[in-house]
Amino acid sequence: MLQVRDLVAAYGPIVALHGVSLEVREGSIVTVLGANGAGKSTTLRAISGLLRARSGSVEFAGQRIDHLSPEQIVSLGMSHIPEGRQLFSELTVLENLRLGAYSRFAGADGSGRLAHRQGLSLLGRLQHDLIQAATGGVRDLARLIREYRQRRQDFEAALKQIFDYFPILAERKNQIAGTLSGGEQQMLAIGRGLMARPRLLLLDEPSMGLAPLVTREIFEIIQAINRTQGVTILLVEQNANLALDIAHYGYVLETGSIALAGSSVNLRKSEAVRRSYLG
Amino acid sequence: MAEFWQQVVTGLATGSVYGLLALAIVLIYRSTTVLNFAQGEMAMFTTFAAWSILQWGEYWVMFPLVLVMAAGLGAFIERVIIRPVEGAPVLNIIIVTLGLFAIFNNIATWRWGGIPKGFPTPPEIHVTGIKFFGEGALDIGPTVVSYHDLTIMVFAVGIMLALYLFFQYTPLGLAMRATAQNPIASRLMGIRVGRMLTVGWALSATVGAVAGLLIAPLILLQPPMMMGVLLYAFAAAVLGGLDSPVGAVVGGLIIGIAENLVGTYTPKEWLGPDMKLTVTLLIIVLVLLVRPTGIFGRRALRRV
To answer: Which sequence spans correspond to the domains of chain B?
Structure first.
């Protein structure tokens, strides 16, 4: 589902990734472990388009995406839940969730027709536009209403699902996001990411700053999302123990390069991982 | 007491105009942290354009035309002039907006000349026998309110209500609020941040254009007409809190009323009407000493 090859990324003159390659199979949970500053978040940022890669390639569902913007990538079915959650902290829980579904609303407006129009010659476009203006109004309106209803149902279904995973969000849906507890904020961040109905979820340190018990609960839900909805997950984590509990496969990142890769079971046995990350 | 209320009501009308222009400033500041010093001149420019259209057209034909034009102007300025300096140091952007200020001022003087022109109030409309807009005045309680002042207030309230509904209840409005708060997270949601900023400038220019159309009948149409208004509008925005649209409007109303009351009730010998600007701004400074972020401002303002 996701193929990253020889990814090199930099912040100005400082090279953060020196040729990272990794693969995420459809339906799996893959984790990227590593110390602070190893380049874990940078890897996710380069995949989701927030950071333009200097070289190398990113392929998602058979399509090169390394030259696309994050807006385009999210509408292809990849949600990035960034480090530090990045909620809209002055908006309500529900508004945050509505924004999570934004990519599904924005791209849908007559994009098929627009593509058709772009294929025409200049004169053809003019003719197309005139015919549209004369006859299209009524038809478009009917289509718009139909689409709107469809999306509305879609939205309600997605919302219901998220409230099933995180009942606390349903209780707090009109509360300002910034006033939630840390665990609830992480749940909202995940829920907001899921509202885009992604096929691949990039999760950056969901355990950050949370109590062990809350972390465990969130990891169980992440596992449930993977199992019941078939969402593929790429999980960046410092807490190697927890990450290896739910992941099928893992990579260890050290100063911008992959140092080690293997199934979770093998990584857990590896001496290097035990010494550095499992303690 | 009648005079007091009279001054308050008149203050409410001019305060509404300050509030509208302050709202235009806040709309841009909130999403880009750009203080647009050309906001007043843009409004002056579109009002001149309105005057030109009025030479051959009806007021109510001109009105929507000018709003669309103002939106286009705002969008154009954002895309062509502001976008290239996005992310530049704050001072650079301020210089750019000051440059815009000069450009609009010069073009207006060159194209339309510096002689003050009269500008009409919206012509009257009768809806089920009730007169809206037009000339004349109305007795309301102990005060006499001119139809133009009423028009200003109706427009101001209408625009604020429309903007509130837009930001609160439409997906585009929500996306614009999100962009103002967290551009990076907005991009991850699939929001095209650049487009939101363009829409923001377009909206802001439109609101400013209405302010220009409404104040022109009171102070005559001329290139420097918005300078005083802009000063009050900035004061209103700062007083209300630079990131709060509600604050901008409330700030405008407070300043409009304060200006009138100071002009009427302070003794002529040492203050009086000539000093009303100074006294009003002094009051604002005192308020800001107590609440540095303004009355409704939440975020601490960045030092610039």
So the answer is: 2-228
